[in-house]
Amino acid sequence: MTAELTIGFLPLVDACLPILAQEHGFAESEGLSLSFIKDLSWATVLDRLLYGHSDAAHMVAPLAIAATLGKGRPAQPLSAPFVLGLNGNAITLSPELARSVASPGSIGDPAEVGAALREIVQERFASSGKRLTFGVVHRYSSHNYMLRYWLAACGIRPDEDVDIATVPPPYCAEALQRGDVDGICVGEPWNSVAVEQGAGEIVLSTAQIWRRGVEKVLAMREPVMEEKRESVMRLIRALCRAAAHFVDPVNWELNSAILARPQYLDGSAELIRRAISDQLLLAQGGDLVHFPDFMFQYREAANFPWVSQAQWLYSQMVRWDGSVYDPQEALRAGRVFRPDIYRAALSGTKEPLPGASSKVEGSLDVPTVVGTQQGRMTLEPNRFFDGLEFDPQDIEGYLAKLS
Description:
5-stranded mixed β-sheet; 41% helix; cell inner membrane; membrane; transport; ABC transporter substrate-binding protein; NrtA/CpmA_ABC-bd_dom
């Protein structure tokens, strides 16, 4: 008997895996039928999930943790048994600002761009008393945390030296065009839309800030996941097959055309194809630039829900909410990511499974063979741009280094 699941999503390229699992029959082969609800903001995606309009959702990972911890609303436990992808976001500035901090047509160096931006921030405030404003897609988003991490490491204090506002992804290019914000941190295709419209120029990829930064997850209410556990495990297997299909260059043209359909991203297949193939147009009229692993959807167990990644997000929540570190909260945050479900779904398949469920983030400079439960696995460099490492066994010590 076919099980039906409804999945909420925003029109972003990294919503690809559930869509392609349905379109290519991977879900059907697992006895699943997927239907989709498209929204325009992460707040609405979360509302639909919490009120039972959807069974699962494509969701920014910090939002699943925030909902579980009761940040901003009554707590409801969510579970994330699958990571939909790593990175895939960029920082796009208004053309004038971009050309003041980076060379046109080339991706910048995070430290150098940050240093140049710091001077502009200081000069503007000294001359006019005004602060630059940056748009992010949600308060509890990896975009917010990556942007803040970069700014702070470069000596720019978020909320004091610059303002940060929420702008839903489909409106980011418009907000830049209108001058409501001076820069945005958003996923594709919305940076490319801003570039094509002449509203902005890409200066950095978030993969330069944290080489293997966790991005979207498949989130579910914990009671729903337990109730539909068998269907969830079938969905995980279907998503893995979709991920393998997604990264194969032979399929890029077809998958771009599918994702561009009105019911999904309703956008340009060409812009979507660029994102899938790690090709970025940094400025209007320029040449495409190849940035390897701009999107990271499959290899190195990219879809594995590392507990340490959830706890890094929790550390940023504490840092930017101005709250006090709580060991019990850190445990609850880590438990949102469910490697046990991922392992149960893929045990006995050809998918590699790491031996551990947590690791020191940002610790690898060179490709490193790691122990596994099954298969073979080599993890590639995963550094933060400032060289710091995150040890989930010492979150409090890590936070002390950041303050």
